[in-house]
Design a protein that fits this description.
By secondary structure, this protein is α+β, with helices and mostly antiparallel strands. The longest helix is centred in the N-terminal third of the chain and has 21 residues.
Length: about 80
């Protein structure tokens, strides 16, 4: 696998490799859903509904959508997950 140096980050000493290897699983799915499928762009403060926001991909989607300037409505399945 070859990637541009701008897409490589040094792993902090206190983060185990097993944890770091799993980060992409949730964030790649969320990013693909928001930008590729949903065509979310950083303009005019779009409104995004994220159902299942208490799970791994949902939490990543909330963070990414907010970072892209969106207003987020987060949905969860039970009161305990809120």
């Amino acid at each position: 696998v070859s990637v541009p140096v701008s897409q490589v980050w040094k792993l902090p000493q206190n983060v185990p490799l097993a944890c770091a290897a799993n980060i992409g699983r949730n964030y790649f799915a969320a990013f693909h859903s928001l930008q590729t499928i949903g065509q979310l762009r950083n303009k005019n403060r779009p409104l995004v509904l994220i159902d299942g926001a208490s799970g791994g991909v949902g939490l990543a989607a909330v963070e990414l959508a907010k970072a892209l300037g969106a207003m987020v409505i987060a949905g969860v399945g039970t009161k305990e997950k809120a």
